[in-house]
């Protein structure tokens, strides 16, 4: 099956001033590759500074990468022809960000906000447009009269529903969700997760679901990629990844999540902090914190390679080991 | 049983809004024993932070008031004690760590200045002694290279390191109670694990009681001895940590646990508590969770349920669930 989203060797470096006359680059993404199929959710997890949000921004065309290629629906949105390709795919592409307060104009009525993509596309008559707004409100579980109200009249969870309704206005195929529930309370979070899953079922949507919360990602994503300091260290189907993490960083992340189980024997806590991207460590970027570090990890960059069907890990520990 | 370290009795906090006085916290009662760790869990607007602030009376003056209730500590009521006495208690007997270390630290003062401030104020240390003690404290909170770090400004430190500095300031005078309000919420998960471990170790080393406030049931489960669950300004459940997670008795606690996505076990659709968290000034008759409750009965819509013991130290504010034990 043709991938809807195809990312190859994605690189992103931001200029970050200069030192001794030399420009300094902040290398936030390093050789990222992944696919997302139709109707599929890829979860992207990692801690702050891992590059997951930058990846999301590149995929919706908000940031132009400094290297590598991104194909959406078979069209390349990188390199020459980027503008034309983006214009052609834009209607099929949407995003939902973390903060629903910042995402909505407080002076616009909700109906106006939701209809904005439709108005820009200019594809609907006035009446079709208003019908569509009502349909969208219903789709995301908001009362019909919400269209005439203002964002401040809604709770955080309801505002995120409004943002989702707007994202769906032009019936996209692919939606980037960047921490869509992390600003919400637990009880609201479950409602929005369920809504996103229902919409995927009904409309056949594909999602890139970016989150720092491993449990949330497990609930929504069929496949998960774990990022660390700008690289993907492991990617696998969710069942395999959570049951048998291969990369020591994935293991450390999972161990670090507090469980609602007071009797749990707590595993040892991984020390250290995420390295500076201005001077990332040589070799494996996790080697400064890895409990299993070997000599070659300090010099040789481990490549992301297939360790089992549909499963990739970048770790020297797995070299020569039989596939899991 | 020894007298508790702190005792909250019917604490009620109101804030002035455009529409008059709004009750943010409504009749909270619980004790914190010496060396005990009480976890307070709830969603936004539940009143957990407002409750914590009332232990130090840190609410803005003029726009807040305590229409009733007491916070008893060391023979005094902290809600009515003179400001002068409170200033002696704050930072010395009861210290606090907040969620966001960046906005709690002063950006133009070094780490040394900020730790020394507490030491010089409460313990009357001279500059050199305070500096030595500050370095010891940074060591105690596991900041590597403390002797050099002590002269850094906050912006030179990572989020995790800043939170360690905040903890160093808080424990500088060996408080008997540390209030930690979402101390790890702004941190990454591996750093959160480090900070929670640090707090656990310090608690034992210093023999202090801790009141940990969090929205995260996982954090509470791994840290607290006892858990207070708050909803819309009231305590709805209060139980030893094992009992609470083994058999939650309030429908809200049950719902919260069921709506948490898990890292183990089968992947199923999440349970979502219907409706939304009420606004503080929303009038709800009877049980404030009633409109969202799957088990609500007629009585729940009329009478405010009382917080009653169902077994041992397990208390629940739910009329149907406490009926058998003499609730009604």
Explain what the structure shows.
Chain B: It is a peripheral membrane protein. Chain B: Its main location: membrane. Chain B: Keywords: ATP-binding, Cell membrane, Membrane, Nucleotide-binding, Transport. The complex is a heterodimer of chains A (324) and B (328). Chain A has 324 residues and is α/β, with parallel strands linked by helices. Chain A has a domain at 5-221: P-loop containing nucleotide triphosphate hydrolases (Rossmann fold), CATH 3.40.50.300. In chain A, 30% of the residues lie in helices and 24% in strands. The radius of gyration of chain A is 21 Å and the shape is globular. Chain B has helices spanning 48-54, 83-89, 101-104, 111-123, 127-140, 146-149, 159-171, 189-206, 217-223, 241-246, 251-259, 319-322, and strands spanning 6-17, 20-32, 37-41, 64-65, 70-73, 76-77, 94-97, 177-181, 209-214, 226-231, 234-240, 308-311, 314-316. In chain B, strands 7-8-9-3-10-11-13-12 form an eight-stranded mixed beta sheet, with helices on both faces. In chain B, strands 1, 2, 4, 5 and 6 form a five-stranded antiparallel beta sheet that branches. Helix content of chain B is 32%, strand content 22%. The relative contact order of chain B is 0.13. Chain B is α/β, with parallel strands linked by helices. Chain B is globular. Chain B folds into two domains: 6-93 and 175-322, Rossmann fold (3-Layer(aba) Sandwich), CATH 3.40.50; 103-174, no CATH class. Chain A binds chain B through residues 47-48, 155-158, 185-191, 193-194, 197, 212-216, 218-219, 238, 242, 252-264, 266, 269-271, 273-274, and chain B through 43-44, 158, 160-161, 188-194, 196-197, 215-223, 241-242, 245, 255-257, 259-264, 267, 269-273, 276-277.
């Amino acid at each position: 099956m043709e991938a809807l989203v195809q990312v190859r060797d994605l690189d992103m470096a931001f200029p970050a001033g200069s030192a001794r006359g030399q420009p300094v680059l902040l290398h936030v993404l390093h050789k990222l590759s992944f696919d997302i199929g139709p109707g599929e959710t890829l979860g992207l997890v990692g801690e702050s500074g891992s590059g997951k949000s930058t990846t999301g921004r590149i995929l919706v065309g908000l940031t132009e990468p400094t290297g590598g290629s991104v194909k959406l629906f078979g069209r390349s949105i990188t390199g020459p022809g980027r503008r034309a390709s983006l214009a052609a795919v834009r209607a099929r592409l949407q995003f939902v960000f973390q903060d629903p307060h910042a995402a909505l104009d407080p002076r616009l009525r909700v109906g106006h906000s939701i209809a904005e993509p439709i108005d820009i596309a200019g594809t609907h008559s006035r009446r079709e447009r208003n019908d569509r707004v009502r349909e969208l409100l219903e789709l995301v579980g908001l009362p019909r009269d919400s269209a005439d109200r203002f964002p401040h009249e809604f709770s955080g969870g309801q505002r995120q529903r409004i943002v989702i309704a707007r994202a769906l206005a032009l019936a996209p195929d692919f939606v980037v969700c960047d921490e869509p529930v992390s600003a919400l309370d637990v009880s609201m979070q479950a409602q929005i997760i369920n809504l996103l899953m229902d919409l995927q079922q009904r409309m056949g949507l594909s999602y890139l679901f970016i989150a720092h919360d491993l449990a949330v990602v497990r609930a929504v994503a069929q496949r998960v990629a774990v990022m660390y300091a700008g690289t993907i260290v492991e990617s696998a189907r969710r069942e395999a990844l959570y049951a048998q993490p291969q990369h020591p960083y994935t293991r450390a992340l999972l161990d670090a999540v507090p469980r609602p189980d007071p009797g749990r024997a707590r595993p040892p806590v991984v020390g250290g902090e995420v390295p500076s991207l201005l001077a990332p460590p040589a070799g494996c970027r996790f080697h400064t914190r890895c409990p299993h570090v070997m000599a070659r990890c300090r010099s040789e960059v481990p490549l992301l390679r297939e360790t089992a069907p549909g499963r990739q890990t970048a770790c020297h520990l797995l070299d020569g080991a039989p596939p899991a | 049983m020894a007298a508790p370290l702190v005792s909250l009795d019917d604490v009620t906090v109101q804030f002035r809004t455009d529409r008059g006085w709004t009750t943010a916290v409504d009749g909270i009662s619980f004790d914190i024993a010496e060396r005990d760790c009480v976890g307070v869990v709830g969603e936004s607007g539940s009143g957990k932070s407002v409750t914590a602030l009332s232990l130090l009376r840190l609410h803005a003056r003029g726009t807040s008031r305590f229409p009733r209730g007491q916070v008893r500590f060391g023979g005094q009521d902290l809600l009515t004690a003179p400001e002068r006495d409170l200033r002696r208690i704050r930072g010395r007997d009861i210290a606090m760590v907040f969620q966001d270390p960046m906005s709690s630290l002063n950006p133009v003062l070094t780490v040394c200045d900020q730790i020394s401030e507490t030491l010089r104020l409460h313990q009357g240390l001279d500059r050199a002694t305070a500096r030595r003690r500050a370095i010891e404290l940074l060591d105690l909170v596991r900041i590597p290279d403390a002797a050099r770090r002590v002269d850094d400004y906050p912006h030179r430190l990572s989020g995790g390191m800043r939170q360690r500095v905040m903890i160093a300031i808080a424990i500088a005078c060996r408080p008997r109670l540390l209030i930690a309000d979402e101390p790890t919420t702004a941190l990454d998960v591996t750093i959160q694990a480090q900070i929670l471990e640090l707090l656990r170790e310090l608690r034992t080393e210093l023999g202090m009681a801790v009141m940990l406030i969090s929205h995260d049931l996982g954090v509470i489960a791994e840290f607290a001895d006892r858990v207070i669950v708050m909803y819309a300004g009231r305590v709805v459940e209060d139980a030893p940590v094992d009992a609470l997670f083994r058999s939650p008795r309030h429908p809200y606690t049950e719902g919260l646990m069921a709506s948490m996505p898990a890292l183990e076990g089968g992947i199923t659709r999440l349970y979502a508590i219907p409706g939304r968290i009420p606004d503080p000034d929303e009038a709800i008759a009877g049980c404030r969770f009633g409109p969202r409750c799957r088990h609500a009965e007629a009585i729940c819509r009329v009478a405010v349920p009382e917080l009653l013991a169902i077994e041992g130290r397990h208390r629940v504010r739910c009329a149907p669930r406490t009926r058998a034990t003499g609730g009604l």
